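FW: tagging you since you asked about this chain on Friday. Here's the raw sequence from the shared folder, copied in full. Didn't touch anything.
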Amino acid sequence: MSLVNVIPCRALLFDMDGLMVDSEPLWLEVERDFARGRGGDWTEELAHACIGKGLANTLRVMSEAFGFAVDLERDGAEIIALFMSRVAELRLKPGFEELFEEARGRGIPRALASSSARPLVEAVLVRFGVRERFDAVVTGSCVAHPKPAPDIFLEAARRLGIAPGACVVLEDSLAGVRAGRAAGAHVIAVPEHPATDEMRALADAVVGDLRAARALLAFVDP
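HL: got it, structure written out here
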């Protein structure tokens, strides 16, 4: 889609990993250690291809790439536990706190919409003291289909009581951008890696950070 000057926003739907928190490096380390323990070499390229699609997808890719059997429940719990044990290492992405608090001060509803499992999401929210500042939290545990299906964003909008078309999704991954567009929301992509042609075609805008994203938002008072 073409870049627009301003995007009307009645509600904000935030992704978590790579958008709210700088978690990709830690995910890479945790997943690499898990795969290495089973004889696999988990590369940055493989990890990048799985961004935003949920842990179950990551485990399936590992199984296909390295030929070892996986148990989604058992192995997913192991990876989540490893990640949660290191959650203190995470940092918020630049511009998140300013954008979040300005929206909060203006009475703009805010939801977290992450494909990650609820225990992990809750651990991250508690780590940064923002759990009670979100009006809704929707995780991969809450819906039938993870991103790029629109389920998570549709549920987030439903819980906020705002039509999806009046929401703005903030996402870093192509899977998340696809999900936001499929939900009928406006989408601003804030990728950690160079944007693909598909991401640029789907998103209302592609920007370098959350401060640039804020500059595009026109908050609509409730």
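FW: The longest strand covers residues 167-171.
HL: agreed, and Residues 24-36 form the longest helix (13 residues).
FW: great, closing this out.
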